[in-house]
Design a protein that fits this description.
CATH topology of the largest domain: Spore Coat Polysaccharide Biosynthesis Protein SpsA, Chain A
Number of strands: 10
Shape: globular
Length: about 325
């Protein structure tokens, strides 16, 4: 005869087990994490493409907004009530924003997706198929396309030949972070992206750390996305150029001794000097009528000044002082 206490104990056990099973059943397979900064139209298109083309796959959408001033947050909140929005109180950069989104993500797979990226109708079916048939994968990237259908560079430091693009999976050294599929367990193991990178270089650094940790990182030509290249940075001009070099300097500091770092600074300073002289000469010869020369002249002259002044802070995109502040999740 079963006692009432034993019966209650078993009932509690079954109830707890059912709760756990329901929790896991509700867990999405994919968590899309989109970082936006003053890209309302592009972000709207990105979220719309997920809503249309990922409907058959369990997923959640997380938008991390880097303190946009173009009405992105209220507009997107009204248009997409299913969208989880983290509204940061200042522009924290791409790496920090992705980390903020990943903190609340529940999916087995994190999909880091630029706000200037759109899915095709068959993107997610191809991604899901690859992940199911290759359970060893930890990081996966696909082919980025320009809006006109032409190919973009989709990998970092790829040493494989063009013929490898006919294979289903290609071993590469890194994946461009515009669209990157990452196993959540790996993300947690690595602590996410290095927030010392503000806008450039964080994807390459993450991939490098993933490979060193033994992760399986592959690129596949079997799925594609549209990437409106530089859609989130093309309006910031010189400040974005400085930010690119801020990331390069940060990477050098991580990898080099102080002596090696100072040597690199001198070498790149001389390089910028000669580039300024070269493009100044070309601009003079063309009477400053060719924008291709004058734009580069301004770029390298600006970077040369920045290097000669000792690479001071405040010339890039990041706020002068980045502080940890509460995040508003809606």
């Amino acid at each position: 005869m079963i006692s009432s206490r034993a019966f209650m104990s078993r009932s509690d056990h079954f109830a707890a087990t059912a709760a756990v099973e329901n929790h896991h059943a509700a867990r999405p397979r994919f968590s899309f994490i989109i970082v936006s900064y003053n890209t309302l139209a592009l972000t709207r298109a990105a979220v719309s493409s997920i809503a249309r083309h990922a409907v058959n796959f369990s997923h959640e959408m997380i938008l991390v907004d880097n303190h946009s001033t173009d009405n992105s947050v209220p507009s997107l909140r009204q248009e997409f009530p299913q969208l989880k929005i983290i509204a940061l109180e200042e522009n924290r950069g791409f790496a920090a924003a992705n980390n903020a989104g990943a903190k609340i993500a529940r999916g087995e797979w994190l999909i880091l997706m630029n706000s200037d990226v759109e899915l095709f109708a068959d993107t997610m079916s191809s991604v899901d198929d690859l992940l199911c048939r290759h359970p060893e994968l930890d990081v996966l990237g696909g082919q980025l396309l320009n809006p006109d259908g032409s190919l973009q560079t989709s990998v970092l430091l790829n040493y494989h030949r063009v013929r490898d693009e006919q294979r289903e999976l290609v071993e590469v050294s890194g994946i461009v972070g515009a669209f990157m599929v990452v196993r959540r367990e790996l993300w947690l193991k690595l602590g996410g992206m290095d927030e010392g990178f503000f806008f450039y270089g964080e994807d390459g650094d993450f991939c490098d750390r993933a490979i060193k940790a033994g992760a399986v990182l592959r690129w596949s030509p079997r799925f594609r996305v549209i990437h409106h290249r530089s859609g989130s940075s093309k309006k910031v001009n010189q400040r974005a150029n400085v930010e690119l070099w801020e990331s390069q300097h940060y990477s050098w500091r991580k990898e080099m001794s102080e002596q090696e770092y100072c040597s690199n600074i001198r070498r790149w300073g001389f390089r910028f000097f000669f580039r300024v002289v070269w493009y100044l000469s070309l601009s003079l010869l063309t009477v400053f009528l060719l924008p291709s020369f004058t734009v580069r002249l301004r770029k390298y002259f600006h970077l040369l000044k920045w290097h000669l002044r000792g690479c001071p802070a405040g010339w890039g995109l990041r706020p002068s002082a980045l502080e940890k502040r509460p995040e508003k999740i809606t």
